[in-house]
Design brief:
Layout lengths: L6 H59 L6 E3 L12 E3 L3 H12 L8 H5 L1
Antiparallel strand pairs: 1-2
Length: 118
């Protein structure tokens, strides 16, 4: 069925078509990247600061609200005893004042090991 002598030109043409297709795919990928880069830059330069500006003060407000709650509990040593049945331990007044001063000065809420022992 094949015409004699046409196998080689057909193979060369198919290789050329494959190369053109690869070049077209590379161009499409570059075009897509060129399209996405501005939106990615906008997201990095605008959306992240907006999110940080929104959630930063909220976190600060929650940390101030957390001062009103007792976080330490003595868990009873009875069968089935858990934190829900525990006895709350209030923070000392000086520690609450110290933490409030740190919050108003913009200090970190992370406590060191020596502060936790107090």
């Amino acid at each position: 069925m094949n015409d004699p002598g046409l196998d080689k030109p057909i193979q060369e043409t198919s290789k050329g078509v494959e190369q053109d297709r690869k070049a077209d795919l590379d161009f499409q990928k570059e075009d897509e990247q060129a399209f996405l880069n501005p939106s990615r830059w906008w997201f990095a330069s605008t959306a992240f600061p907006l999110l940080a500006g929104t959630f930063g003060p909220m976190a600060n407000a929650f940390s101030v609200c957390a001062l009103a709650e007792n976080w330490r509990v003595i868990v009873p040593h009875v069968p089935g005893g858990n934190e829900a049945h525990g006895i709350d331990i209030k923070d000392p007044g000086w520690y609450v004042i110290y933490t409030l001063k740190r919050r108003t000065r913009g200090g970190s809420m992370k406590t060191s090991a020596t502060e936790r022992k107090l």
